Amino acid sequence: MYMMDEREGGSLELDSPFPGSISAGETVSIPFSFVVPQYLLEDSCRHPCASQAVWERHLHLPPTLDGTNEEEHEFVARGRIQYYVEMRLRCHNNPNNICAGGRVSEDFSNSKIVAARQMVTILPALPELPPLPLDAVNFGMFLQSKSVAIRKNILQRSGRLNASSTQPPAMMLDPSGRSSACSVVPLELEFFPNDVSSRPPKRLAVSAVARGTTHLCAEPSELLPELSCQNGAIGGGGSGPTTRGAGSQA
């Protein structure tokens, strides 16, 4: 996530002149459709990128980040993302403010503006990304296999236990937030004895932790953050990642 100066913009602006007069206490209904785009406009990202995939990531519509839940509190101090539908009622005293076709002119010096907005929470639906190329380079953040020594006692080893896995399918979040996301991690355990008399351990406790990482950068990243994060540094000159995790044990 690249944090820039505060900026506000509209994805849809519609001028709808209201004919006649509005009486006090009268309710006026203006139907409209609020369509959430999947990507930002192409000219939204003009940063140098190492590949087309990075540029497409920069165009992803960011989700709402307003600090309404505990997980977002630590990020709100660095950046806030809000979406809202805003209605503005302009009272024009000068008839010259109305252009041809009924559109309101850009000169609002003689206008009184009354505005109201309704906040909306957006979690964009994005396609599942391809697996990371972890086999090409050994990344410190990702371990697909690890082995530990199993001991009979302090002096003798009975063998080594190796655990290996492959990348699981992505956990796709539900935009409504009412259902849990799940994935399956295939785990293969192998025991390599030191001699024929050695036996595998009788009891094993397997624990799993699902950890999500949000990368906060001081400038746009030229590489994918999950592939360029090494020893707390992020490609593109950003700061180290801020991580929150939740896990369960079985």
UniProtKB/TrEMBL annotation:
Task: Give the classification, highest ranks.
Answer: Eukaryota, Fungi, Dikarya, Ascomycota, Pezizomycotina
Q: What is this protein called?
A: Uncharacterized protein
Q: What's the source species for this entry?
A: Cordyceps javanica
